[in-house]
Amino acid sequence: MPDPGAAAPVERVRRQRGHQRVEVLLGAAAQVFAEKGYDAATMTEIAARGESSIGSLYQFFPTKPDVAQGVIALQADALRQRLAAMVDASAGWHVDELSARLVVALIEFRAAHPSFARLVDSPGAPAEQVQAVRQAMRVQLAEILAPHAPGLAKARLAAVAVAVQQVMKAAVTLNAEGAPGTRAALSELKEMLRVYLRAALQA
Fold this sequence. Notes:
81% helix, 9 helices, Tetracycline Repressor, domain 2, 203 residues, mainly alpha
């Protein structure tokens, strides 16, 4: 009679290999999405980049939207971790330093995860998931700002977080243009945010 306990380690190995395969496929998908965008990317290209059969890809991700959701979820978690580190450190920053760090935070993240922008800005992206990512970012931004505004009403702090998020997105757009004077313009954005936060957080 087979030993039921003997099957457990085998099943664990299978699950581990499955997780590893998913990580490889999502990494491959992120590369393809970054290079071609959501609409032009194909499941065949993603499977080939992940050195996998198309059948194996479909086993884990039946459709391209499923793949996109997996990549967004993975990268959204990376963004959450990056902002969480800022939450932990922000109390020790002066508003001037806070402003400068916020302006470049999303630029640095998107440079490290180029497919993120291609996906979340695509008309074909899963709208509910993208909105959830943006809302989660606003919550964390409010947490980053909170130590500098102990007396600010929660609703006002949330509104300030939305404004900061828009400045961060503007910085990403400006940086991506790469036009002459970009560095000087980013410095102006930092100064603009500094002046705004000094006034808003002390209101």
